[in-house]
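Shift notes (night). Ran oligopeptidase A while the centrifuge was going.
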Amino acid sequence: MGKFKTSLTAMAVVVALGACSEQKAPETSSSDVQNAATSQQAQFDNVLLQEFKGPYGGVPAFDKMNLEDLKPALEKAMELNLKEIEAIANNEAAPTFENVIVEMERAGAELGRVFTYYGIWSSNKSSPEFREIQAEMSPKLSAFFTQITQNEKLFERVKTVYESDELKSLTPEEQRITWMTYNSFARNGATLDGEAKKRYAEINQELATLHTKFSNNVLADEESYVTYITEDQLDGLPASFVKAAKAAAESRGEEGKYAITNTRSSMDPFLTYSTNRELREKVWRTYYNRGDNADEFDNNDIIKRILTLRDERVELLGYENYAQWRLEDRMAKNPENAMDLMMKVWPAAIARVEEEVADMQAIADEEGADITIAPWDYRFYAEKVRQAKYDLDSNEVKQYLQLDKLREAMFYVAGRLFNFNFTPVEEGKVPVFHEDVKVWEVTDKDSGEHIGLWYLDPFSRQGKRSGAWATTYRSYTTFDGKKTVLSSNNSNFVKGADGEATLISWDDAETYFHEFGHALHFLASDVKYPSSHSGVRDYTEFQSQLLERWLTTDEVINNYLVHHETGEPIPAELVEKIKKASTFNEGFKTTEYMASAIMDLKYHTTDPSKIDPDTFEREELKKLGMPEEIVMRHRSPHFGHVFSGEGYAAAYYGYMWAEVLTADAAEAFMEAPGGFYDKEVGDRLVKYLFAVRNAMDPAEAYRKFRGRDAKVDALMRDRGFPIPKETKE
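Came back to this:
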């Protein structure tokens, strides 16, 4: 979910440092190094290192990427980058914004290109061969980035610029990236000496290996544990799901069977519709036990080691715990503020779960099921409650949710809000890494100006990590010549049978819009420097969460939600049912997410020596009053957001923090004369919430959009929860 994430610890450092791998060889000028690099670049046979060629300002050569090129490309790119680093660090000229910060923004081009391909192998087309390279290179990359952050001469030059009088004369964006660069060094070990600095580097290397191992263990369980069922076990399952499950089995060589793959997109609808309770339990346990099967891919020991190392590392920097370090430069500022938000919402969420379970139990009793609602029953009986309370059948709604039509709806919204036009790129004109991937050119509707490209990789397949995410292969910058955007959305929808529409659930449709929101954030950017694209984790999900709201606008519903067989628009009475049921099952959705977010904070504010992951998860959730009928959305052994890298570590709460902004911003549109397509509010949205990226403090940017800070009571109204007294005005 949300921005591109990789299991590589070093990549997290790249994000943290922005483009801080830009430097030069000793006693040579910037132009000399650049010319030498250009000359050397021309001699590269390795396509992964080469500048992007072809149309649209150059595009990745996905059709020519070979795995045997990856390791030598990474090694060469690191070598080139370190030469740039040394040049900046050893430049005898007095440190200035131009010869330190700008040069750092410029450097590392080759490595950036290699990481583009690395990300494809890691997320979209993994293999045992790639994972061997990943395991070998992760600690080496970590050591490489640590070498940069611990370069004392470089840090002194950065610090000099940060503390100089020149800073006051820079633009706000330039001041901000100078601060971010300095802060990244200071927070990542640059201030340490001697043995502490050495130990910091050792910890980073071991963490890189552990993060990779954690991620690969989860992927191994997702690939290995497939539940095959037969025709007599299909009761209750929608025809579209049955066809997709049959195709999934055939693709795995299991003719005559039906495959329930170990991904959320397959598990969720099976648990919702299958009448076979025994199979529901099996599929549920298979999914939620990923990384927790007491075998070679078990992640519990890895979790404890990761927590121990993170705690030791931040102790070297003088912090009490990892969460304190992590949140210092986020909107929340500290774990106490983050937990305070969680605790304002948690009581209402679990109270709603109690109501939801009572409704489900009543139906089960009425039907004579003779059961007590268990986790594998929740979705099944929730669907029955939905139909009973709102006369709303999720499968009926699904008939109007065609993947292609929803994509057209997203384009419509992008046209209204951002003035973007999406045109399919002729097949073969832009290389892709899989036949499922399609590409669109994005232009300004009025001027025709080229904005960038949008790649879409929508379907689940072996070797592709689960979930949905967005990324860029190139971001918009102007400091060194204008660079246009190459953005990508990636999902794991179960492909419809040949010649038939791919139908998805309402939740999946929201996720589709969500990830497209990230893409629009990339495409709408109007910043000068690469570092301005580095995200503030409890803010970066806000823009994408907000875009989900346009799925329920009349313009989208009336024009794009049409029946996949008849082409008839979704009936008005069904739309009304959807809107009336908008807060249905909100207890489940909020609680399963918040349990993960709260546990993330608890893991990173507790002494790791006192943590046994399996016991800790169970006991802490019990203290919270976690309903027995629900589990964490991401149980600890497969919580990749937190343990396969550091992007969301101690920061998974950020989705809820962003939801407060989302609910409050949505009310700004609801209060406007033109609703969700109001021109004035829409212009402020683009200007302050999308185009600015991280070139402005997020809190300031939001105030410019809204005229004030966001209020949590908007979130409570949005979810149909009672508003806590202390938040009422």
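The first strand starts at residue 227 and ends at 229. The chain has 29 helices and seven strands.
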